[in-house]
Amino acid sequence: MRTFPRIASAIAACTATASLLAFAPAANADEGIVTSIKSFPTSSQTRENLTAESTATEVEGDSSWGGIETLNVPQTASQAEKDAAAAEAAKKVQDEAEAAQVQSQMESASRGQARSTLSYTETDGSVSAGAAASIDRAYSLIGQSMDCTALVSYALAARGINFHGWPEEYANVPGGQIVTDGSLQPGDILIYANTGGWNGGAHYDHVALYVGNGQAVHGGWNGYTVALADAMLNQVTIVVRIP
C-alpha cells in the first residue's frame, strides 16, 4: 500500500482549506453583518523633540508673572548686622545721655544766672536753713516750665527731701507737720483743695511754696511756668511745715 502519498495529499488539502478560511468573510447569522479578520503588522513612529515642551524656557516678552516687589519674604539679619544694629542703638543711647547732660548743665547755668540774691538765712533768722534752701531754689526756677508738684519737689530736694506726688499727698512729706494754729512761715507748703482746676475733683487742685509777705512761688502758672504771685491765703486748705 502506498500510504504516505495519501497522507501528504490530505495535509496539503487541509492547509489550503485553512488558508481560505483565514481570509474568508464570516457571516453573522443573527445580524446579517459580514466582518473580516486580518492581521496588520505592528509599527512604531518615533516623535522627535518629545520633551521640547517640558524643557522650554522661553517666555513671551509681555507676559506678566508678578514683580518681585510683591513678594513678602521675611528677612533674617546676619550676626554681623545684628551686632552693628546693637552698636548703633548703644551709641544712640549714649548720645542722648550726653545731650541730656549738656542740656541739664545749660539749664543749671541759666537758673544760676536767674537766681535771686534773696537769702532768707541772711535776712530773717527765724527761717531755718532748710526752708531758706527751698525758697532759694524755688526762686531760681521762676520762668521755667513745670507744674506745681514739680516745683515743690525741686524745692524740697534742695533741703535733702526726695518726694513727689499729687497736691494733697504733700501733707505726708517726710518730717512735715500740718499747721493748725493759722500761722504761716516762709518755706511752708500750701495745699489748695479747689482753685477752679480741671481735674474733676479726683485730686486737690494745687500746691505751692510760701515765701512770706502774702506771696508764694507757684508752678504751672500763667502758661505752665513758675511764677511769684499772690499766695491766695483765703483758698489754702492745708499748711505743711518742715522744721
UniProtKB/TrEMBL annotation:
Coiled-coil region list? none
- By its UniProt entry, which InterPro entries does this protein fall under? NLP_P60_dom, Papain-like_cys_pep_sf, Peptidase_C40
Q: Where is the composition biased (Polar residues)?
A: 43-57, 102-123
Q: Which UniProt keywords apply?
A: Hydrolase, Protease, Signal, Thiol protease
Output the GO biological process annotations, alphabetical, semicolon-separated: proteolysis
Q: Which Pfam families match?
A: NLPC_P60 (PF00877)
Q: According to the UniProt record, where is the region Disordered? A: 43-68, 96-123
- Hydrolase found in the keyword field: yes
| Superkingdom classification of source | Bacteria
Q: Quick one: signal sequence residues?
A: 1-29
Family designation? Belongs to the peptidase C40 family.
Q: What is this protein called?
A: NlpC/P60 domain-containing protein
Q: Provide a Gene Ontology MF annotation, just one.
A: cysteine-type peptidase activity
**UniProt-listed PROSITE patterns:** NLPC_P60
Domain (NlpC/P60) ranges: 107-243
